[in-house]
Design goal:
Layout: E1 5-8, H1 20-29, E2 34-37, H2 42-48, H3 67-79, E3 83-88, H4 98-111, E4 115-118, H5 121-129, E5 135-138, H6 147-156, E6 161-163, H7 170-179, E7 184-188, H8 230-234, H9 241-248, H10 255-266, H11 273-287, H12 304-321, H13 329-360, H14 363-377, H15 381-389, E8 395-399, H16 407-420, H17 441-444, H18 448-455
Parallel strand pairs: 1-2, 2-3, 3-4, 4-5, 5-6, 6-7, 7-8
Length: 458
């Protein structure tokens, strides 16, 4: 079973005050066996505030703000023979801030804080210079995506554990933890739907809309943008006016609109089908690994999402049933498998939706119940992912958010599954159609069939 980590962030003063002894005991009773926190003492906050943070947190209540509280926390955690580590993982430190970091490190040593987690090479160099004897973890913010980066840090610093970046794929995780089998790793399961390391795109992020980063829009592909070189081609006499208008065109049609348009044209008997079928094949080939090609029973049957899936399925059925087939043999097999996957998602999704609707009678109530169950009891998909991660003995910790949820029930469920090595059907509201259960999977399971094959081993 993986370690269960808890972040501690509060003050002993004002509204955030806590009975530390009682609070830490309750967390330990709830199976917490490791703690971490950030530290922003008065000598830092009085000069730099909380907007400039030494630990990547930007609100007072998200970290420890005084030495006395930090000391009490360390003492309480150590009473249970557990470890606590502290973050020094801000995006950067300057000549003005680094002396305060040095002061913090001396306090950490005084308190016998077990680990420091850092992303800044200057911090690593400083700890190396002072012959720091406690554990050092590499932060996710260092963005270690490949074996070359990991090898560099292992060869140059005394590293206890490497925390892989949030947006890394399951295939990449498998490759790295297998290659560095003697190194401890921490990985993320659920995360914040940003394709960029720790939101370094500086865009707005919302759970409901995933991210709205500049180039990641709706269906996960680049959209056409306004041309910054418009003056050049406007003055280009070799181009016709029509060509210039087309170059300036910023209209965009998603793949589902394109498929619907092509299918409609194919139905017109007087149009040449061959170029239309070629374009249809091209779109399907470019999109067949998308993770959102499945019926979603948490949305209405006539929702735009599910209507899009019906359009996609129509395109697949046309290509796999046409005689003579416009597909090569290998393509035909791939498209037919994808068609069956989507059809199965409809069957299990509609069965689930029908049964649940009969139970509660009212579709809005059904949706409300489903959302409550999702956040209160936890996402069943964690079970499958944890089973996968548990194959690798050097994955020590797996992070997933529990903010505002009954996370003790979630952790109990995951622990039971790992200990018993089975998944009871009562926990599987959506059967085992894991690809379509929630938008959490949108970025993580890019290659969905690869992950399904892995699960067959359990």
């Amino acid at each position: 079973m993986f370690k269960k980590i808890v972040w501690l962030g509060f003050s002993t003063k004002w509204k955030n005050a806590k009975d530390l002894e009682k609070y830490i005991k309750s967390l330990v009773d709830w199976w917490a066996n490791e703690f971490f926190t950030g530290y922003n003492p008065e000598y830092w906050s009085s000069k730099f505030g909380f907007e400039v943070s030494p630990n990547g947190r930007f609100a007072e209540h998200e970290q420890i703000t005084d030495f006395e509280t930090l000391k009490l926390i360390v003492e309480e955690v150590h009473k249970y023979d557990l470890e606590i580590f502290i973050n020094l993982n801000a995006w950067y430190y300057t000549d003005q801030t680094f002396p305060f970091i040095q002061q913090m490190v001396s306090e950490f040593i005084e308190l016998w804080i077990d680990w420091i987690i850092c992303w800044n090479i200057s911090i690593l160099e400083y700890l190396k210079d002072i012959e720091y004897k406690w554990k050092i973890n590499i932060s996710t913010i260092l963005a270690l995506y490949n074996s070359e980066a990991i090898r560099f840090f292992l060869e140059n610093y005394k590293i206890n554990k490497i925390i892989l970046s949030r947006e890394i794929t399951l295939k990449e995780i498998e490759s790295l933890v297998t290659e560095f089998s003697n190194t401890q790793f921490e990985v993320f399961w659920e995360w914040d739907f940003c394709r960029y390391n720790n939101w370094l795109c500086f865009a707005e992020h919302k759970y409901g809309a995933k991210d709205i980063c500049t180039i990641v829009v709706n269906d996960l592909i680049f959209k056409k943008k306004f041309r910054p070189d418009f003056k050049e081609f406007i003055l280009d006499n070799s181009l016709s006016n029509q060509e210039k208008v087309e170059l300036m065109n910023d209209e965009y049609a998603d793949i589902f609109s394109q498929l619907a348009s092509i299918l409609w044209k194919i139905e017109l008997w007087f149009l040449d089908k061959e170029p239309l079928e070629t374009e249809l094949c091209k779109i399907i080939n470019n999109s067949k690994n998308r993770v959102d090609l499945y019926f979603d029973a948490m949305q209405a049957v006539n929702s735009s999402r599910n209507i899009n899936i019906i359009i996609y399925l129509r395109a697949l059925k046309y290509l796999t049933s046409s005689q003579p087939s416009p597909l090569e043999e290998k393509e035909l097999e791939q498209f037919d498998n994808l068609k069956k996957e989507i059809e199965n998602s409809f069957k299990s999704g509609m069965k689930y939706l029908t049964n649940k609707t009969r139970e509660v009678w009212w579709l809005p109530k059904l949706k409300a119940i489903e959302l409550w169950n999702f956040y209160a009891k936890g996402d069943n998909l964690n079970l499958f992912t944890y089973l996968f991660f548990s194959k690798f003995k050097n994955i020590e910790t797996v992070k997933f958010p529990t903010r505002g949820r009954n996370y003790t029930e979630k952790i109990k469920l995951i622990e039971w599954v790992l200990n018993e090595w089975k998944v009871d059907e009562k926990y599987l509201d959506r059967w085992m159609s894991i690809e379509r259960a929630h938008y959490d999977l949108t970025y993580l399971f890019w290659d969905k069939l690869w992950f399904r094959d892995k699960l067959k081993n359990f």
